[in-house]
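Subject: complex prediction, re-run

Hi both,

The earlier run crashed halfway through, so I resubmitted it with identical inputs.
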Amino acid sequence: MKTTSPVTDMTRGIWQENPVLVQLLGLCPALAVTNSVANSLAMGLATTFVLLGSSVLVSSARRLVPTEVRISTYILIIATFVTVADMVLQAVVPDIHKELGAFVALIVVNCLILSRQEAFASKRPVGRAALDALGYSIGFTIALVIMGSVRELLGSGTLLGWPVFGPSFEPWVIMILPPGGFLTLGLLLVFLSWWQERSVRSVVDDAAATGRKVA
Amino acid sequence: MAELVWIFVSAALVNNFTLALFLGLCPFFGVSREVGTAVRMGAANLFVLVITSFVAWGLNTYVLGSAPYLRLISFIVVIASLVQIVEMAIKKLSPALFRQLGIFLPLITTNCAILGLAIFQTNRGYGLVEGLVFALGAGAGLTLALVLMASLRETLDLADVPKVSRNMGLVLITAGALSLAFMGFAGLFSAE
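This time it finished cleanly. Structure:
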């Protein structure tokens, strides 16, 4: 088991191993509910609550859970937190809860949450597990909000409900419909890959300019 | 009868689980590299969906009447044990298939399509027959989307695309185009 510093545990999930943009986990909510910034934020926060709660609980119970039934145990713990999140959302923001619909309940089957329990929380102390969960949640929420901003801006011409472009703007309705979700994430990935490519190339170019050889 | 046909077509085409509702994306992207594997994955999903529909109906009718807040937990536990049984059966009956589906077989449990079907079926108040038809439609839609995607990807492998878009980016954009095409089915019923 590799040891990592607490800071790495926390920051790794935000960018380097961003669950949506790098690992492509949890795509289901990332595509389904990101047609507006408000929905994306609500989904991000609900997922944060579930991931943080489950990670802390799984990590504290890690010595009590037999290996054979660990996955079922994790799913039960996750389902419990999702039920709580579902009820809280319904009570506090009924409008958003209605728009998210079944996707709040479907947080249970978000691969991101289960993968963090299996890969991290079940093997580390509570504090580290909480940091890790927090990092990944922030990364997840950021990715969702980026998607939501792009789609709401182009699809309805608004941001968090405020009109941005003025009355002459013709909304690209397709962006808030299902195809828009696939297209937005696809183009986002292409952009990120282009960016990475470019920074790698500049390193190679620098090396060539100074006459060094790059392996 | 007409209503059953509508439920089937709606689940398979108009509100396709994968392309319109974003359910079951993991296998859609993960196992859509070859048409053969895609067909088998689709069939496995169809099988689990039908059983899930039956189980969800049974739980709703006989067990959960007095405790609806336990719905999510009991669905997931029953479905998880069920998939475990299916997995053991497949391992025994067809080791080759088991090897090909690899990691995605246990992950059918954490496939949103399965739990999504149970939840939708409950929310819409479908009975036993309606639920089973719904599951068949959803499974057929999933398989159709998987096979279409796999066929496209087999062709795309030979295409000369810019290097930056060679991986998931291209696959997602292709899925977007596919989803766009499926939106054409939305007019299927309103025209009448």
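DSSP finds nine helices and two strands in chain A.

- K.
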